Amino acid sequence: MAxxxxxxxxxxxxxxxxxxxxxxxxxxSTITDAGGLAARYxxxxxxxxxxxxYTFALPNRExxxxxxxxxxxxxxxxxxxxxxxxxxxDRVASNVPxxxxxxxxxxxxxxxxxxxxxxxxxxxQERVPDHGFWTERGVEFREVxxxxxxxxxxxxxxxxxxxxHRELNRAPRPDQSPAPDQDASQDRGQDAPQDKRQGEDAPQDKRQxxxx
Length: 212
Ligand SMILES: [Zn+2]
Known about the structure:
By secondary structure, the protein is an alpha+beta fold. It is built from five helices and three strands; from the N terminus they run αβββαααα. The protein has helices at residues 5-14, 82-93, 100-118, 136-144, 151-170, and strands spanning 27-33, 36-44, 51-57. It has a three-stranded antiparallel β-sheet with strand order 1-2-3, with no helix packed on it. The chain is globular. Zinc ion binds next to loops.
């Protein structure tokens, strides 16, 4: 079951074609499957041309996207296990692009993926329970680094990505003409709303004075 489109697309990225390519122009359609509604993603592999098709059950309760990415509501994923979510987060966070907009996207994704790991932890527990791991790579990750699936540690990681993202939004963009007085010291860190604005139409206005 895919809770949202973002979750389905992430799953597809984690499951490349047999030829190894992830590049497929997915076309989504809603179908009736075993009496319920399902989302079908189909397309041809951009590399080898193989026809690929995945069908995801749709949740009874719809999750409305709140910014990008929205992988799901409060309930844990049934598609990726806790280990896979943390792998995704690590992978994205270790490869944050230099430009501000894409860096923001990467940090949003890394943070959201850690939040998905946290959803596996029941309120009265301190770590992801055993049944939060069911894939080979997920189980393997936990065996190597069990401590990383503790609530306390996951929250620190999540907050780090949040802070980095806020700093990014505050920092002057290198490709903009410098404003005379940046009020970067303005303190609005702690109670900033969780409202992540992606792609805020920063003008690609490069002022390169190359009249040397
Ligand atoms: Zn292929």
